């Protein structure tokens, strides 16, 4: 379409982006890959604006020769030159460049980094093993709600472990056990690699602190193994972040990888060809780590050193914000008819839960607030498909700070909010993932929202004028006199469904006139 015939609306500034300092970009020069990630802005829950990775294998020959391979260097530098143009085109306000094991250990690493500086026109921060471990740990404590366990970040050249609990980072270690390093040290022999991994990990006393806790797996090769396991069990939600598997099941799956031809594994088409040769070495390290830590489960992370680097750039007030609620607020701003109304729903739904006697833990209340913020993001869809589309958006959103049962709760509440709580056109696996307690509260929340929408039309300043109580006769809804004409069969029917959830009679009152059904 020619510019002179474009509709005026297409010539306006994009409304699908949020204001703030950005875009901000991070280039991560790792031992196996170099990656450019551009984030919309610097915030507690950064949204990825652009993401590109090139598997260069910079660390492939470092252990054997002490040098970065010429072909790998040329491939990496070509990627850097491309990255610079892309950053310019996107108007990146700040470019952060970090380099890890291969660049810091290779004899020709300094020469390579100087070429990177020239290609990008920016300084490169070469992370020590301790710094790399610390930033990966920051990613875990910022991306997992109440993290508690051992974080392991497996790169191409090194493997970092750190004890994490809540917002605290404990002791950590760095080992020369990245996927490429292990492959090289074992002369590309899987049996020898298993022996080396067991020996080196047995000397890592820090791992003993992981007994009966969670092991947080960071790194591309481990994520690939997690994705393969999803396909292996036909998991219903293909979202990697905070995907959890028992240690026993994951050890068994890793051992199955070692017995199989990698090319024959279910879901192998979703793993890049360049990464596939490292899968056996990643499987060895993951299985041996779980055996050494005696962790009860492994949780896979979709974020790592880059996000940890961004997190440390935030001030203390921004760091303390809840990433799930931040992301939900942003979606409400971008997609809801009224973000202010979403906040009123939080108060309304709390009242509904209280009068129905539905108790909540602090974590459940947090999920309910997030669900209210997300309740109206699907309004532009066709009415027949709002539930399904909203479910898909919420279930697969790039949220952090939420586990998969929590995702299922958010998705179900949004689906029921549009399609009705009696609609059973859902995969039973999603309900099972949520669990009975979450599923019940998702239904209750959806019913509360459906009643609220009929009263307010999704606009603010109405729900706070409505009263809801439970008395000896049942559930009582009181409308102000100027809203009397809102009463009718549709509101009565939805309110009846809400009352039925608590096995209660119901009534709608205008001023002092009460008529119980």
Kindly describe this structure.
This protein is α/β, with parallel strands linked by helices. Helix 6 (179-185) packs across helix 10, helix 14 (339-356) packs across helix 15 (362-373) and helix 19 packs antiparallel against helix 20 (489-501). The protein starts with 23 loop residues before the first strand and ends with a strand. It contains 20 helices and 15 strands. A 6-stranded mixed beta sheet has the order 8-7-6-9-11-10, sandwiched between helices. Strand 14 and strand 15 (513-516) form a beta hairpin. The model has no long low-confidence stretch (mean pLDDT 92). It has helices spanning 62-65, 70-90, 101-105, 109-120, 129-143, 179-185, 190-202, 220-232, 247-259, 279-293, 305-313, 316-319, 323-335, 339-356, 362-373, 386-395, 404-419, 428-434, 436-456, 489-501, and strands spanning 24-29, 33-39, 48-55, 94-99, 125-126, 148-154, 159-165, 168-175, 214-218, 243-246, 297-300, 467-471, 474-479, 506-510, 513-516. It is elongated, with a radius of gyration of 26 Å. It has 3 domains: 6-126, Nucleotidyltransferase, domain 5 (2-Layer Sandwich), CATH 3.30.420.40; 130-308, Nucleotidyltransferase, domain 5; 323-516, Hypothetical protein af1432 (Orthogonal Bundle).
Helix percentage range: 40-55%
Biggest beta-sheet profile: 6 strands, mixed
Strand order of the largest sheet: 8-7-6-9-11-10
Could you report the average pLDDT, rounded to the nearest whole number?
Answer: 92
Integer count of domains: 3
Query: Would you identify the CATH H-level superfamily of the largest domain?
Result: Hypothetical protein af1432
User: Count the helices. How many?
Assistant: 20
Global morphology: elongated
Query: Radius of gyration from the CA trace?
Result: 26 Å
The first-to-last residue Cα distance is 60 Å
In the CATH scheme, the class of the largest domain would be Mainly Alpha
CATH overall fold name of the largest domain = Hypothetical protein af1432
CATH architecture of the largest domain: Orthogonal Bundle
Please report which band the strand proportion falls in: under 5%, 5-15%, 15-25%, 25-35%, 35-45% or over 45%. Answer: 15-25%
